[in-house]
Amino acid sequence: MTPHLGQGASQAIEDAACLAAYLNTDPTTDAALAHYDRERRPRTQAVVRASHQTGRVGQRLHGRLAVALRNAGIRATPPSVALKAMVKHARWEPPALG
What we know:
By secondary structure, the protein is mainly α.
């Protein structure tokens, strides 16, 4: 995962919470790990894709025109739209532990 969303530690904490819950509720370790993979993979992949895209647009642009267009687009984006894009990766509810 690239560091562009600052989600690495958050994802690790979410992983730990999910593993604890599934190990507590599923009948076997293998079942808990399968449950963990099934539940975590879609969210994790979405965060990885978003982080990669943010880095591509935010830090890996080259050339004055590309940077100027990016900056103009950021300035033109309403704060509510920018916040909605950020919050979707921050919003998460842990599974019940029992």
